[in-house]
């Protein structure tokens, strides 16, 4: 079942139900603090106009950025900008509508700008109203993140704090990935369409995120450096925009350089592995080795030669660079196949000397 950002459907005047799939992921830290009024980041929030006659939608207010004088909340285009439809100044609330029975919650920011969909990132910012959120950039269960961004690498241990699944940890399984992501123009309604991305970060886990976690900042477990902006996934996969590209694209639209509000190192939040241990870890506290840079570069070069053909294959929804099971220093070409598709693509076991790894998953959907 595809997972969407959280939305509520009004059956009667005062009767509501959650219509998105939460998948019984569990709430890593008890969850309640992420869905109520909370001045930290990594919690429920969204544009108060993200509502239709039957649905209201919300995501996650991920983190805090600044242009040196003004502070902004960072989240997704489809969370803050209503999928390219918002006008500057639209109210952004915390918590989101979905956690307030579709009634308007406290307003904490005003939508500012978004990088348009199709620009290879799903990102937007809203100008923070003074005194409404923690000006230090504290993320619930993580603490104040580092101000220094970190490039994603295969095998890197990461964490996030989001509206639905709270604090979770995982490991980057693929980088430089092309992915096709499904959107819907309006909250719970309207024609569905697909946006293609390249150079994305993929985490293979059925517990790392769920619908409503869109907008969460993915950080490194060691140092809490910003790594990616969570925006999509499936029942087995999470996808994020590399954070350096997010900052660059938003800075270009804003006309001023943005940077993270944070410290030089980790904040006083939860440590890695405190909540869960992903299958990518050999044992408690023992992280999977990261893919060597030289191996990643070699695989990326091979992928570039074949990327177009792979993505044009019926049933293929993604292709990236990963590592071999049992030999994390060996790079592989990872191909993501839609297991709900009638197409059943087959591939040679190797591509230009690199092993090909197939991953069956659901369609990728903007949460």
Describe this protein's structure.
The longest helix is centred in the C-terminal third of the chain and has 19 residues, at 293-311. 53% of the residues are buried. Residues 9-28 and 266-286 have low confidence and may be disordered. The two termini are 12 Å apart. The protein is mainly β and 367 residues long. The chain has three helices and 21 strands.
In short:
The chain is mainly β and 367 residues long. The chain has helices at 77-80, 243-254, 293-311; strands at residues 6-12, 15-18, 43-47, 55-61, 63-66, 71-75, 91-93, 107-115, 123-128, 157-162, 166-186, 189-204, 217-220, 226-233, 237-242, 259-260, 316-324, 327-338, 350-351, 354-361, 364-366. It has 3 helices and 21 strands.
């Amino acid at each position: 079942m595809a997972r969407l950002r959280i939305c509520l459907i009004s059956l009667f005047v005062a009767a509501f139900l959650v219509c998105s799939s939460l998948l019984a992921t569990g709430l890593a830290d008890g969850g309640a603090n992420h869905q109520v009024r909370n001045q930290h980041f990594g919690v429920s929030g969204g544009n108060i106009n993200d509502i239709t006659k039957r649905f209201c939608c919300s995501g996650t207010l991920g983190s805090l950025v600044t242009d040196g004088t003004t502070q902004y909340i960072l989240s997704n285009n489809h969370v803050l900008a209503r999928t390219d439809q918002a006008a500057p100044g639209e109210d952004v609330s915390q918590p989101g509508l979905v956690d307030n029975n579709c009634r308007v919650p406290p307003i904490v920011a005003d939508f500012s700008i978004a990088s348009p969909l199709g620009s290879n990132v799903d990102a937007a910012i809203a100008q923070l109203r003074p005194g409404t959120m923690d000006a230090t950039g504290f993320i619930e269960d993580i603490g104040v993140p580092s101000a220094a961004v970190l490039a994603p690498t295969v095998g890197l241990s990461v964490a996030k704090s989001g509206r639905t699944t709270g604090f979770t940890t995982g490991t980057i399984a693929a980088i430089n990935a092309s992915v096709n992501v499904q959107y819907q123009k309006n909250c719970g309604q309207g024609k569905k369409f697909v946006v293609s991305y390249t150079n994305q970060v993929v985490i293979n886990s059925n517990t790392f995120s769920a619908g409503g976690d869109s907008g969460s900042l993915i950080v490194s477990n060691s140092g809490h450096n910003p790594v990616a902006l969570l925006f999509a996934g499936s029942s087995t996969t999470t996808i994020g925009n590399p954070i350096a590209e997010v900052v660059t694209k938003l800075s270009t639209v804003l006309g001023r350089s943005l940077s993270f509000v944070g410290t030089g190192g980790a904040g006083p939040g939860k440590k890695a592995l405190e909540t869960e241990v992903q299958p990518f870890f050999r044992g408690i506290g023992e992280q999977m080795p990261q893919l060597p840079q030289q191996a990643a570069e070699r695989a990326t070069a091979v992928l570039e030669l074949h990327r177009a053909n792979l993505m044009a294959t019926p049933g293929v929804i993604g292709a990236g660079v990963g590592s071999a099971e049992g030999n994390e220093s060996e790079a592989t070409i990872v191909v993501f196949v839609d297991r709900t598709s009638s197409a059943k693509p087959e591939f040679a076991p190797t591509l230009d000397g690199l092993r090909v790894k197939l991953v069956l998953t659901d369609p990728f959907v903007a949460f």
